[in-house]
From TrEMBL:
CDD domains: SET_LSMT. PANTHER family: N-LYSINE METHYLTRANSFERASE SETD6 (PTHR13271:SF34), UNCHARACTERIZED PUTATIVE METHYLTRANSFERASE (PTHR13271). Signal peptide: none annotated. It comes from Forsythia ovata. This is SET domain-containing protein. Residues 223-272 are annotated as: Disordered.
Length: 357
């Protein structure tokens, strides 16, 4: 099967890149589509808190700094998601000549986040939010604004790159559709690596599926004092914070070395627990053999999960229901005095219970 061949190629690629994956992990093909596969990570034996199940050299990550287009990106002063999008599109354009070809072959062409929905799909698919028409309207408006801003980014920053003298770019891989596709992969799969690399695509780490408030494994970046202190720009908006809160920050801890890896012979400098060039996946819960090993995108409600990643969860403990303030005031005024209602309103404001007036 094509999916099995791509998985085998990816595992060989990881070994060549010095990526260590514990033999206790099984990368399982969950579903197969014509052009991509869905992967889950399961435990082959019991895993315990503190086990290091993966080590990933930063140089194997696809970032602005590691991409072959880094000079063009830096000359164009494209930071954050813009720069990383160019890096992804450029590496895709190289095909088998890209150092990340086997990794990119394992990824889906796009992630089905609302950003890639058509305007009629946005209106129709987000009309399900019966508990709050105001909330549904706000989310629809946010996504439509996102689409307009992303298109504007492509028009102003990406399309002009096709005339660059630094690299001969294939227009087919830098179209607005390809830019939206790259942005969807970044939104769903990227990690913040460190100040030097900024955001990037982290092979193997991005195969762990999400589970809200129930992560088994944690992605950590060992603190580096030797790398550049220049902050990488990023164009994160405050929209997701308004919808449902922040992602968890990356831990900056080092952990003890564990046995049981299948990443091949590596230089001792890359397996050192104090090496700032290495990312680690650490177990923070015990997981029984046969169970899936989950990561987390943070303590997010379904609105933020849908907006950022294109899915929701049943029984999400961080889900919220937004109710129009006018409806609340009408209900309160029908049962209580105006003075009582005003006092309640004042208290709610002090408790910061309102989102968006």
């Amino acid at each position: 099967m094509a999916a099995t061949r791509r998985m085998r190629a990816f595992k060989r690629w990881m070994k060549c890149q010095g990526i260590e994956c514990s033999v206790a992990l099984n990368l399982t093909i969950a579903t197969e589509a014509p052009q991509s596969i869905s992967v889950s990570v399961k435990a082959l034996c019991d895993l315990q808190v503190g086990d290091v199940v993966a080590r990933i050299p930063k140089q194997s990550c696809l970032t602005v700094k590691t991409s072959g287009a880094h000079e063009l990106i830096e000359e164009s002063q494209l930071g954050g998601y813009l720069g990383l999008s160019v890096a992804i599109m450029y590496e895709k354009s190289l095909g088998p000549k890209s150092p990340w070809f086997q990794y990119l072959q394992l990824l889906p062409p796009i992630e089905p986040i609302p950003l890639l929905w058509s305007l009629p799909e946005i209106d129709f698919l987000l009309s399900w939010h019966r508990t709050s028409q105001v909330f549904g309207s706000i989310v629809r408006q946010i996504i439509k604004e996102d689409k307009a801003l992303v298109y504007e980014d492509w028009k102003e920053c990406i399309e002009p790159l096709l005339g660059s003298a630094l690299l001969e770019l294939n227009p087919e891989f830098f179209s607005v559709q390809e830019y939206f596709a790259a942005r969807s992969l970044i939104s769903s799969r990227s990690f913040e690596i460190d100040k030097y690399h900024g955001f990037g695509m982290v092979p193997l780490a991005d195969l762990f599926n999400h589970k809200t408030a129930a992560e088994d494994v944690h992605f950590t970046a060992i603190s580096s004092h030797s790398e550049s202190d220049n902050d990488a720009d990023n164009d994160n908006s405050d929209i997701d914070d308004a919808i449902d809160g922040d992602d968890e920050p990356i831990a900056q801890d080092s952990h003890s070395e564990k046995d049981g890896f299948s990443g091949g012979d590596m230089e001792s400098s890359l397996t050192s627990e104090d090496d700032p060039r290495v990312l680690e996946m650490i177990m923070i819960k015990d997981v029984k053999a046969g169970a899936e090993v989950f990561n987390t995108y943070g303590s997010l409600g379904n609105a933020a999960l849908l907006h950022r990643y294109g899915f929701t969860e049943l029984d999400n403990p961080f889900d919220i229901v937004n109710i129009d303030l006018e409806l609340v005031l009408q209900w309160s005024s029908s049962l209580f005095s105006c003075r009582h209602s005003r006092r309640r309103l004042s208290l709610w404001r002090k408790l910061d219970l309102f989102w968006m007036w």
